[in-house]
């Protein structure tokens, strides 16, 4: 939606809605949204920002975008500027052209942080697609920490309760989204930094498959593990941002294009769903084991976890117990193994030349990297490979499609963490540190509150390439939870409705670069009908409704099980309703094996003159049971009804 003559000052919109998404849906212009976002960020008082872009610069960029969009058709805007009307924060270890990059090192005056000459690939991609960068967000120094207190720019305070930690290392990125200062933000995730702040601030944190979002322009923590992550108020927003941002993949040697990732199944876009989720056995989910500082909240966390598991069952999940030991062992390797040496490698020159720039706790951690030999490094790699094998075996043994864990098992006050900075940080990574080592994708999603101002979330994870599946589960779970979004007063459902009103219904992406094609379905494979599972289990996603050109007849093979229609060429025919689905090319062969005679795949002409592959009757002379050459009643002509759904309503 692009509106946009403004007769009403933006402050009137601000009183009517608490999120930028709702403001945009209410008719605010691109410059209105940018101005409101700047004003909210300027009033920030939780140490969430390191550097804000001057408001006039932001407004100039927004105005240029608004003028560009005004010259486009609605379809062109949707295609070329899908993020129009959004603003975002960037974690301060990602480059933004013209802005300083501190990596949360002590560049306070008179020191000056280096100014980026170019933007990180993902930042540039998002800006080119209509999003406006507001500034650089606070973080834990060198992205080493899950607490958000290891910064010379202040300990970032939780968005719901100032006395508690915000989570790290992407602290400011999480808090700025939770407080609706920006539409979304970029963080990074090596040990859990893209998920812990999400759980502690009641928002969504998506850590896609490693390498799917380019790390070009990222100051590394561990190059072999680093991921760029996304914070948002709703799951579909995170998916849409991923679809846009992942198009930048391929600009860095560590990027892994979507076409190289295994693509997993999907849940149906609506209606009943069925999936199997694994959870750790009880001995691995002991909320009384997170230290005396969290003991008073342990029972609240336990009950929140139990409610979350029940909520997963309520949306169609079957719960199975997974042998969690290999996941836990892998998590322990991250800071108790030679990957600490990789962190040392990333900052060795700084330690030698300007050690005073580093946070004292972070400096102590990375200096431990000197203790590891090359021999130990290789031994750890061998151990990790064995743990990957065992972890996958654990999931496969119980046929779990996804693994679900608490994102964190406790939280702490800022005061507690400053008093015990290493042990409490380690506790926060118990359910997150394994993720990149085991090559999993994961999304942290709010499910309930453990107590007032104490949000609780779970992480849904799966093997790399199953990003769409984990988002499908998370979306259903988040929608059913009945929560408010972040620290705002807006219901998640209201924010989601605002997004859908401006961007249209959205069912998530296939990985950028993945070879796919569109297939038209006109019968039992349509959304929610008897055979749609054959598409979703192969990674297919619903795209849109469509209609054929007026040159087809529709006949009903009502003797088949399940009944299905046939689309037949006929110059005296009519337009027939269709659905267009996108399907991974790699799954097409197995799908074709399921196509029953007399149907097949062929070209279908749409009412706009374009053509798409889709279901047609290819064996002519078939009876209503779909059998050829055996006689019997012919299929019933239902062309006048215009669609298979209308036939089913009879």
Distance between the ends = 37 Å
Tally of helical runs: 21
**Principal-axis shape:** globular
Q: Under the CATH scheme, which class of the largest domain?
A: Alpha Beta
Q: Within the CATH hierarchy, at the fold level, what is the topology of the largest domain?
A: Amidase signature (AS) enzymes
What ranges have pLDDT less than 50 throughout 5 or more consecutive residues? Answer: 1-16
Q: How would you write the strand order of the largest sheet?
A: 1-3-2-4-6-5-10-11-9-7-8
Percent helix, as a range, is 25-40%
Biased composition (Basic and acidic residues): 253-263
Domain Allophanate hydrolase C-terminal: 518-649
GO molecular function: catalytic activity
Domain Amidase: 34-470
Structure description:
It is a single chain. The protein has 650 residues and is an alpha+beta fold. It folds into 2 domains: 10-503, Amidase signature (AS) enzymes, CATH 3.90.1300; 516-649, Gamma-glutamyl cyclotransferase-like (Hypothetical upf0131 protein ytfp, Roll), CATH 3.10.490. Helices cover 33% and strands 19% of the residues. It is built from 21 helices and 19 strands. It has helices at residues 10-16, 20-25, 30-42, 55-70, 74-80, 121-128, 171-178, 196-201, 235-245, 298-314, 325-336, 339-353, 360-367, 374-397, 414-419, 421-428, 467-481, 492-503, 533-536, 588-592, 644-649; strands spanning 49-52, 86-91, 131-137, 184-189, 204-207, 227-232, 275-280, 317-322, 402-406, 440-451, 454-463, 516-521, 541-547, 552-557, 564-569, 577-584, 599-605, 611-617, 636-637. It has an 11-stranded mixed sheet, with helices on both faces. A 5-stranded mixed sheet has the order 13-16-12-18-17, with no helix packed on it.
